[in-house]
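Standup, Tuesday
Yesterday: got the pipeline producing structure tokens again.
Today: sanity-check two examples.
Blockers: none.

Example 1:
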Amino acid sequence: LVRARLGVVRTQHVRRGGSRVRMQSAREEEEEEEDVARAVEKKNGGKEKKEREKEQKEESVENVVIIGSGPAGYTAAIYAARANMRPLLFEGVAAGIPGGQLMTTTEVENFPGFADGITGPELMMQMRAQAARWGAQIITDDITSVDFAGGPPYTLKASDRDGDIKAHAVIVATGASAKRLGIETEEAFWSRGVSACAICDGAAPMFRDRVLAVIGGGDSACEEAVYLTKYASKVHLLVRGTQLRASKALQDRVLQHPGVTVHFDVSVKEFIGDAGARMPSRRKVRSTGSESETDDESESRSRAQTSSASPLSAVRLVKNSTGTFEHLECSGVFYAIGHTPNTSLFRSSPLELDVAGYIKVQPGTVATNLPGVFAAGDVQDHEWRQAITAAGTGCMAALSAERYLSKNKIGIEYHQEVVLGEDDASRRAATKERSSQSSSDDDEAPRESDTRDNFDIEKTSHRGSFALRKLYHESHRPVVVKYISKSCGPCRQLSPIISAVVREFDGDIHYVEIDIEEDPDIAESAGVSGTPTIQIFLNKGLIETRNGVLMKSRLRAMFNSAVAQAKKELLETASY
């Protein structure tokens, strides 16, 4: 019995011991599995980390950068954005107006889809909004340098952006700039009676009810001659050749217009007038009430009917076929004599240009001599130079860039947020609402002019002559005045740029928008010869004037300087 019991105990001990051995083995197996899992996880984690790093590196390189805007640049942005490439578009300022030559065009009647025509600025703003809706990143800035030698990817620099910009593909759509005559007296009268933009400057008070002239014989010249009849007492169209080069419809319109006289076979040799004449200003102030006029305003109004505000009084013409000279009296001259391609940025790069400066492309394509670099619009078109052909080449450039990225397996696809099958009416309503909100956000100036009832000197932004007169006399802040006209395309481009900078200086400046057609007396007394014009006043003195579309960096520098001067004068006043 004792042996049996001992045997049972021994057997149980062995069994329990075996159980412990089996449990220990199981734990060791589990630990080994955990070690293997940790090793696999570590390995996979490292792989995932590398993939994330690679993806981040790829994200730092743009799929495609578009240099320039206009019909070519905006169309390229639309197609590239719809291809999920999320293009980065730099509209440019230094080489021309963001939006291109159509921003200075009146009626566009040959662009398909607009039965009643559309203005150039309206067409460009619609194209821009369409590109933005599909996800294009649009920046109003200049590309200042490109490195095409070390790519792809290619390296670019922008004037108002820190660091380099790298891109797998680049679309060049820099367009062309208006030519000048290059005659001796041209510079002295530039922006003082001579201009290259009738739509920007034609509404200026110095040209109202005056005799004006347009130089050129193509579509643009004919359009501008007809446009200027809204403001001028008479328009002369000066054509170097013996016939017009415009479309037949425009030729008929000009030749039959009672307000336009066409002069064939003539060239301008000299501008005549008082180039040193002082333009009216608001420096001298009358001592009467705070809402009174300046002396210059009163003087300008009294002499407006008897003399021209423009320093230009006439042009000297030569008859090309005979060499005889003639004298033509006029107060303003507007150029429409063609354009030069904006390719100075690329002259020292490997990108091939022809003798006239246009970018060379392979026949029937928009491909250049560099892989991944494409050219669209007037920068590569020295023959057709139409809005519709520019848009077509913009489409070709975007599709070519997409194929290039796909073929080389580079770039990242960014999927759209637009819901497929969304009700069109709802989508359009939402888009219109977003557009309205965006427009409101972009434009800092109030929609309605200030009046005696709603004027508040503590507010930063104002509109109209009442506000300007009050601030001119009562504000100790710098008063920034932006002069615009309703038909001015560049004014629309400047609006979001200056509004963004004004918000940065909230409380330090006053900002006033003046429509020169609503307040012509103000514009005339200020010596405004075109739009957009920016003037800065401080303590009843004009301290700076700038014309055209300006970059944020330039505006910041102007505002900072004015604010610093205001603080200095305030301290000097306090010390007395």
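Example 2:
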Amino acid sequence: MNELDQDGIARLKVENTSDEKITLQVLNVQRNTSKNNWDGEVLDGSGAKHKVKFARQLEPKLESEELNQFALIQVLTWTNPSLIATIIVNLEVLKSGNQVGGPLIVQQIESIPTSASKTPATKGGSPNIVTKTPIQRLQNKKVLSISQLNPYNNKWTIKVRLTTKGEVIQWTNARGSGELMKVTFTDADGDDIEAIMFKEAVRKWEPILQENNIYLVSGGRLKVANRQYCHTSSKYEITLDASAAIEQTSEDGSIGKVSFQFVTIAEIFENIPENASIDLIAVLKSYEEVREVISSKLGGKTLYKRDLILLDESKIEITLTLWGDLARKQPQDSGTILAFKRVKVSDYNGKSLSILRSSKVFQDTSQDPALQDRAQRLHTWYHHEGGAQAETTSIASTVSKMNPEQQVAAFYTQSRDSLLKVRINDTNIGQGPKPDYLSFKATIINIKTEKLWYEACPTCQRKVIDQNDGTYACEKCNATLAECERRFLLSFSVADDTASQWISAFNDAAISIFAITANELCATYEESEAQFTDIINQKNINNSSFVVVANKKLGKIKPVSKSRRLLLLLSIFIENLKPYSMTSKLFFDK
């Protein structure tokens, strides 16, 4: 027999204990280079799919492509070491994938009402194979919402609007070259998901897919989205190949064109983290001329870039960067209201925004029902209520021009938290590629006196070796020193009314706590341990304002420059001239 068995997958999941044979179709097959084996997926007559592995003895058929994608096979021997995948030990190839041409739905000849729908019989009296197109397979299928999709259900259909269609991108790497295209689909619930196509799929679907049209989509492969590049609401993304099913359907009003969740520019500075994507509507205050940028990441490719300065009623300006064709287009006049769907937040120069491939820019905001009210309020504020003449603040564009006092003062405008709140709200603190800054009030309750300082070279500040003859050796400078400089390496605990925390501080920060240098404290210890103990005790139970830096890769932090910068802050805000402290690293107890 060469028809697909209706219960083939169910039988395949049961251990092979007899001489039964199962007729299936191979949906895909690929070599797993890391494990040096072949993986695949098979389909039965009911449409059920199952992951399989091919035994090593089948490798000649796989390498010769006798056993390839869409091949019709008869499984002779198999085993089930797990419920996830079946190992096919032996099989017979009834038809190669080139002969079949695509996924099959097989029916008996008797079920075909007219002879016109029959295909020619194969030799030997085998039953005919009737192939339905991918579009036909979409009919009468249950439509799921985007939120219901998951990688464990590969029999799905979604009804969506194509809200964003990206450009076709040419790529080249060590394995070859090709092209890709990304699109964004949105469903009736307002959820969206990104779909990506490569090579043949791009050539097939690019002319068909048009923005704002409604489509029924099925047959794609789901995987967890990479949040560094994908900013849709769904945690998955779809890969569509040429065998997927995409059918345009009529407009019925069930899916809105675009929905927005606007934030203000003030909220971006106060609450929105780096790499988040947001929607923004603002006034175009000014713009820069387009510039050419050579990208080293893209092999020296020339990119086009233009910065826009945006403003809203919060009277704060922010820079938004356009790339590619959007940057090359002449912007609207100053004072125009612009809306942006899904732009990326960056901490460059304080805070700034950048266009993504999935972003959309709306210039005619007065004609879009979803934007009219908000756009009209902004227009009235800017043109009729003095917004154009209002004094504005541009933190993002001026941070790099601030002197150190201005930088720390701008940072300290953020509210201070309790230690407990910091722990609850920032469970991933210090885990990013850049250090995190935290501020809080607390009391020093314990200072460790063991290894309070280390002997350092006065020139390079590296640790020196005591040679026990009154001299010190610096390996960095390759010198013998008569005197060394002692530098603080302080560890102390702080507490407030909610929690306690151990903190480490380097030399400059520790000097601000003790108000003397490590050399002076060492001399006090050598003269009188009692006086040394008094100094330590005096620094306990002191209330201070703290700014701390947290980073898992402490080697990237420059303690001296960080300490000096943040000490300026503490000198301004310390309460009642009490001794203050700061740290250049912070560890949380797990």
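Quick observation on example 2: The first strand starts at residue 22 and ends at 32. The radius of gyration is 33 Å.
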